[in-house]
Amino acid sequence: MPVADRVAEVRAQITELAQSSLTASELMQKMVKLLHERMLKYNWVGFYMLEPGAQPPVLVLGAFEGAMTPHTRIPLNQGICGAAASSGQTVVVDDVRKDPRYLACSLETKSEIVVPVFVRARVVGELDIDSHFPAAFTPEHQDLVKYCAVLVGKKLETAGQ
Ligand code: SME
What CATH code is carried by the domain that includes residue 48? Predict the structure, then answer.
């Protein structure tokens, strides 16, 4: 199946999940499972959420699919994850070996994308995906992952955790 068709199909399935999930937790659980199963290059898929009230702020591992990671709590001044959450910008790394911010999760990881999740214009967490393939997150994948993050932000706003 061509990548564009696969992306369109998964996008439609994600839309259905957002409609049928009653809570953001349910949506995040089902979303990571679907992305991990259906997108062959998405080898680790997970959410990190800002711990409410934590000072200094810290990202805590939430729903994920893939190998267990040693990074269950990430301060905002560390990692690609910290960079995305503190800047509110999507970070795409085509070759993790060349990015000094990178915190290793698996030796097999070659590329990574982290997309912030917003609720009422504030970062509340992020969707992090690692790939065993270099430069896996082309613009059409970036669009899909951003779409996922937007749906989770909307669900948090309307349905809560
Ligand atoms: N690579 C991330 C850490 C999280 S693991 O990939 C699951 C980072 O550099 O922040």
Answer: 3.30.450.40
Tell me the pTM.
Answer: 0.97
pLDDT in tens, 52-72: 999 999 999 999 999 999 999
Residue of the CA atom closest to atom 2 of ligand 1: 103
Cα-only R_g, the chain: 15
- Averaged over 19-38, what is the pLDDT? 97
Q: Provide the domain limits for residue 14.
A: 3-158
Number of domains in the chain: 1
Pocket of ligand 1 (CB under 6 A): 44, 69, 71, 74, 79-81, 102-103, 105, 112, 128, 130
d(CA 11, CA 35): 10
Taking every pair of C-alpha atoms in the chain, what is the biggest distance, in angstroms?
Answer: 47
Q: What is the DSSP letter of 44?
A: E
